[in-house]
Records
---
Amino acid sequence: MEVMMSSIAWAQTGGATEGTAGFFSLVPFILIFVVFYFLLILPQQRKQKQHKEMLSKLKKGDKIITSSGLWGSITRLEKDTATVQIDDNTRVKIQRDNIARLRTDEEG
C-alpha cells in the first residue's frame, strides 16, 4: 500500500511541473515574434507611413522617380493619378502610388 501512495504522490506533483514546462516551451516562440516585430514589421510600417506622407505632399513641378524607374516631372495632379512629363513632348499618366520617391538636385 505504501508503494501505491508514493506513485500517486509523484503523479500529482508531475502535473504541476508539466503546466510550467508547457509555458516555458512557448517562450522561444514569443521571443521570435517580438524580434520579428521590431526588426521587420515596425520598420515596414514606418516606411509605409513616410511614403504615404510623401505622396500627400506632392505638387506640380516636383521631380520624381517612379517605381518602374521612369524619371520625370509632375505636370498635373489628380486624386489618384499624376501626369508625368518624361521628355519634351512625352507625358504619361500614372497612379500616384507608383511614385517611388522625389529626385534630389544631385541626381539631375
Note: Residues 60-108 form a domain with the SH3 type barrels. fold (CATH 2.30.30).
---
Amino acid sequence: MGTRKRITAEQRKEANKSLYFAKLHNVPTSPRKMRLVADMIRGMEAFRALGVLKYSNKEAALRVRKLLHSAIANWEEKNERHAETGELYVTSINVDSASMLKRMRPAPQGRGHHIRKRSNHVTVFVDSITDKQN
C-alpha cells in the first residue's frame, strides 16, 4: 500500500470511530421493497423502531430489525455502556441497489422474457440525542 493510500485509510478509520453503524450486503429483496421498510423507521427512536419492525408484516422488516440490533450493539461497544430507552435515534438509513441476477424465462412463440432478480445493500446509522446537541 502506498503512503497516500495509507494516510487516507487512517483518516477514514479515525472518522469512523465517531460513527455508529451497521451494514448488510446483498440482501435478496428489491431495493424498492426495502426502502418502504426503511422509510418507516427513518429518524425514529431506536427501541421504538424495533417495536415497529417487530409487528410489521413485511419480510424485509425482519432483516432491518436484525441490522438495527447490530447497530445498537456497535454503539454500546464503542461507548462501553448500555443504551437506554429514548437515548438512541436512527439518524440515517440508506438502501442502495446491489448486483442483479439476470435470467431468461421461456415465452410463447420462441420468445424469452427477461427476469431481473434484484438485491440491495442497507446501512443503518444510530446516534444518541446528546451527541447531536454537542
Note: The domain at 21-133 is CATH 3.90.470.10 (Ribosomal Protein L22; Chain A).
